[in-house]
Amino acid sequence: MTIRRGLYAITDNALGEQLLPAVRAALEGGIVLLQYRDKSADHARREQEARALLALCREFSCPLLINDDLALALEVGADGVHLGRHDGALRTAREKMGPAAIIGATCHDSLGLAAEAASAGASYLAFGAIHASRTKPGAGTASLATLAAARHFNLPVVAIGGISTDNAAPVIAAGADCLAVISDLWQAPDIRAHVREFSRLF
């Protein structure tokens, strides 16, 4: 499955009952990837929401990835999974999800981690936080130089962390194929229009 350049939306628990309407607006705006991120232990609700999001994504031909939960991704038939450093082996995810799945890897600010992820079958390499992040306030920072250097892996490069329409242009210029955004997207007064604003930067 190919990854298009553009805005990569990651869901926010704070959306609550507005999750599906907000995601629909983002899909109508033209996001290129959606990641369902919910760290709670409520498996029944997470499964229900993941299935509902997958149905929505199918309407718009947008891949749905599950954050840090390979079992849930397999259970609902998602298009892929995003794995952090301590969320299971990339090779295992690739074996279980197959060659067409999108498997993302958190690489922080490390080209060494990126090399490991690339050799283990990652579909894209995610670096961050690019700027201070409201979602992960304690996250270390990743430099634009790392984004540029990561181009030699010949995999899509994803930038995450504190990205907004005001600071995104240099990140794209440095080599980001996708901008992964949480707070700046879902807190926008018009989500659909805000996605289009991001898309114009590409």
Give the total of beta strands.
8
Shape assignment: globular
| Termini separation | 21 Å
The largest sheet is:
8 strands, parallel, barrel
Number of helices: 9
> What is the CATH superfamily classification?
Aldolase class I
Structural class: alpha/beta
- The CATH architecture can be named as Alpha-Beta Barrel
What is the averaged pLDDT score?
95
Fold-level CATH name: TIM Barrel
Low-confidence stretches: none
Rounded Rg: 15 Å
Task: Give me the secondary-structure topology.
Elements: E1 6-10, H1 19-29, E2 33-36, H2 43-59, E3 64-67, H3 70-76, E4 80-83, H4 90-97, E5 102-108, H5 111-119, E6 124-128, H6 144-149, E7 157-160, H7 168-174, E8 178-181, H8 183-186, H9 191-200
Parallel strand pairs: 1-2, 1-8, 2-3, 3-4, 4-5, 5-6, 6-7, 7-8
Helix pairs in contact: 1-2, 1-9, 2-3
Q: Would you kindly provide a written description of the structure presented here, covering whatever features stand out?
A:
This protein is an alpha/beta fold. The protein has one domain: Aldolase class I (TIM Barrel, Alpha-Beta Barrel). 39% of the residues lie in helices and 18% in strands. The protein has 9 helices and 8 strands. Strand 6, helix 6 (144-149) and strand 7 (157-160) form a beta-alpha-beta unit. The longest helix is centred in the N-terminal third of the chain and has 17 residues, at 43-59. The chain is globular. It starts with 5 loop residues before the first strand and ends with a helix. The relative contact order is 0.17. The mean pLDDT is 95.
